[in-house]
Amino acid sequence: TGLVTLDSGFVNTASCSSEITYIDGDAGILRYRGYPIEQLAQRSNFIEVSYLLIYGELPTQAQLDEFSSKISRHTLLHEDLKRFFDGFPRDAHPMPVLSSAVSALSTFYQDSLSPFDANQVEISTIRLLAKVPTIAAYAYKKSVGQPFLYPDNSLGLVENFLRMTFGFPAEPYDVDPDLVRALDLLFVLHADHEQNCSTSTVRLVGSSEANLFASISAGINALFGPLHGGANSAVLEMLEKIRAEGGDVDSFVRKVKNKEDGVRLMGFGHRVYKNYDPRAAIIKKTADEILGKLGADDQLLDIAKKLEETALADDYFIERKLYPNVDFYTGLIYRAMGFPTKFFTVLFALGRLPGWIAHWREMIQDPATKIGRPRQIYVGSPERDFVPLDQR
Ligand code: CMC
């Protein structure tokens, strides 16, 4: 079996080769399938980027039309799946609700679970892209006690999601085009990020030949944690706590530097980026504009800006190369859009979905894939003899 080396957190260990996303963390570069994130943010949109990530090339108009129309024909949830939501407590966190419902898709679509049948993988891909936004919107509706809306398939994916989330059955929902554009942009920025915790989870679970729904459900649970996707909610909670305690940014930063009670500056730092996260740079540039239009909580925005300014000038953060990451400003934008804090990580999941799917498909097709099975360094007791209960 050869030499086993310890690499906690896989800091230096590649688990696969991939053609999907390129990151140069020192230079702050991110590309999907070779295209710089800045160009995609400015000139593309979420549905096109989803196609690009999953199929490897930008679609022609005909390919894009077919892809969008297939997705819009699968947005409905089975009526029995809708009843799922009744079983959760009202104050359930929407992330486990989302992962449970996605896991349940493998019970509803038993005709499309084979990882090795290209048609089945394709239909599962479309079902996920179409149904996860509906599930997410219903998780929100459940939490506020409002009726579910059927999807309106004349609308685009993001618009449909916003209508199912914020609309009411008896009223027309005039979705604000600025809101649609802003959320679409945030989804583009979240769509893939190579071997992060949730994507690696999707690949690892999938490497056992578990089906796509089961693998994505596992990825959603990995994203839930506050060091990963949960950071966007944690940033807002942090900003609110600082405000509630009088808005003293300097004393909060001091606490972080002294590592008091394990407090971290949420939305800062990244395993790979040792420079400004290019996604955060785009969000920061657009944040003022979006927040200006949507009406931000200016106090929290001021605290965030002051935090960033203070941290970027402080030796602790400079020495450790800690910069704002994608989650630092997104929470403020989601809040301004009307989403509750608990829901932010669900929005991250909606954005990351095409990336997870693309990686799962690449993993399944790669002849080099083996079941993921890390080694360990055993540090427990040496061999010893069993002691009967009455002698312990
Ligand atoms: N605040 C204060 N100190 C920090 C932070 C932070 N946010 N991040 C890292 N450090 C310190 C850490 O204490 C350590 O210091 P020392 O060498 O004195 O022990 C040093 O920087 C290296 O940190 P690490 O924990 O070894 O770094 P990592 O690569 O394992 O962790 C991270 C990466 C993102 C988990 C971490 O930076 C962090 O916890 N950030 C806050 C949570 C967050 O914003 N997560 C979102 C990440 S981006 C989107 C996503 O993946 O979802």
Characterize the structure shown.
- This protein is mainly α and 392 residues long.
- Helix content is 55%, strand content 3%.
- The chain has two domains: 26-227 and 351-365, Citrate Synthase, domain 1 (Orthogonal Bundle), CATH 1.10.580; 231-337, Cytochrome p450-Terp, domain 2 (Orthogonal Bundle), CATH 1.10.230.
- The protein contains 17 helices and three strands.
- The protein has a three-stranded antiparallel β-sheet with strand order 1-2-3.
- α5 (94-108) runs antiparallel to α6.
- The radius of gyration is 22 Å and the shape is globular.
- It binds carboxymethyl coenzyme *A (CMC).
- Carboxymethyl coenzyme *A is lined by residues 9, 196, 227-229, 231, 256, 264-271, 320, 322, 325-327.
- Pathway: Carbohydrate metabolism; tricarboxylic acid cycle; isocitrate from oxaloacetate: step 1/2.
Q: Give the number of helices.
A: 17
Quote the beta fraction: under 5%
What would CATH call the homologous superfamily of the largest domain?
Answer: Citrate Synthase, domain 1
Main sheet record: 3 strands, antiparallel
Our count of domains comes out at: 2
Structural class by SSE content: mainly alpha
Distance between the termini: 37 Å
**Rg measurement, Å:** 22 Å
Helix fraction, binned, reads 40-55%
Quick one: overall form? globular
Give the name of the CATH architecture of the largest domain: Orthogonal Bundle
Distinct compounds present: carboxymethyl coenzyme *A
CATH class call of the largest domain:
Mainly Alpha
Task: Provide the CATH topology of the largest domain.
Answer: Citrate Synthase, domain 1
Low-confidence stretches: none
Determine the mean pLDDT. Answer: 95
Tell me the number of strands: 3
